[in-house]
Amino acid sequence: MKPVVIFRFLAHEGPGYLGDFLSAQNIPWQLVKVDEAEAVPVSILAYSGMVLMGGPMSVNDDLPWVPPLLDLIRETKANDIPLLGHCLGGQLMSKALGGVVTKNPIKEIGWGGVAVSNNEAAKFWFGNTETFNAFHWHGETFSLPQGAIHLLSSPYCQNQAWSIGKHLAFQTHIEMTLEMVKKWCEEGENELLEAASSVAVQQANKMQQELSLHCFFLNIVAKQVYTQWIRGLKF
């Protein structure tokens, strides 16, 4: 059974609930720690799926791992191997497949509602869910590549998710666990203070109110999405 390869770009922005979900399904997965200078694989063919997590950098930054990773994303799609991107990961997918990544009109951090689009692709991924409370931490946004179908939007960011067949990209975060939210609040303390005046930025104390409940319901959504995604894995 080929493993799913998961790319991490920052130590505290790991696979979170997704890792727990894959392990519970007895699906092997391998973590590539880009933040520790681990090399991007030269080919995707040893893997059943490709996942890209979040990070504070931009896909437009001059970073040595960006070009090979964009090439690997394109190879993955060409071989019909499922792609899944979270935040930075979704932006990498968008850029690799012909979209553009630009500054979002407003920085969006914390819990906030997203609306599920009214189309068959959205129904496939999210079932009967029409809205849910997602976790956000981004200052940029992506456009939809050619052939992509719009899946999610929020009041502060129109493009929160898209899909092309079995390939799925998020701007928002559905992989969050209680521990991750707490750690992100600690690590992002300065960023939160600098953006305190933004109407779309929650402070740490607000984000952590009823945190267990928020994560419980987000995990339900994530389980639905990830269950659909693993159906496309190429073992």
How would you describe what is shown here?
This protein is α/β, with parallel strands linked by helices and 235 residues long. It has one domain: Rossmann fold. It has 8 helices and 9 strands. It has a 9-stranded mixed β-sheet, with helices on both faces. The longest helix has 20 residues, at 211-230. It is globular. The N and C termini lie close together (5 Å).
Q: Strand arrangement, largest sheet?
A: 2-1-3-4-9-8-7-5-6
Order of helices and strands: EHEEHEHEHEEEEHHHH
The major sheet is characterized as:
9 strands, mixed
Number of helices: 8
Structural class: alpha/beta
CATH topology: Rossmann fold
Shape: globular
Total number of beta strands: 9
Mean pLDDT: 97
Q: What's the number of structural domains?
A: 1
How does CATH name the architecture?
3-Layer(aba) Sandwich
Q: Whole-Å distance between the termini?
A: 5 Å
CATH superfamily caption: Class I glutamine amidotransferase (GATase) domain
CATH C-level: Alpha Beta
Integer-rounded radius of gyration: 16 Å
Summarize the amount of helix as a percent range. Answer: 25-40%
The amount of beta strand, in percent, is 25-35%
Model regions low in confidence, pLDDT < 50 over at least 5 residues: none
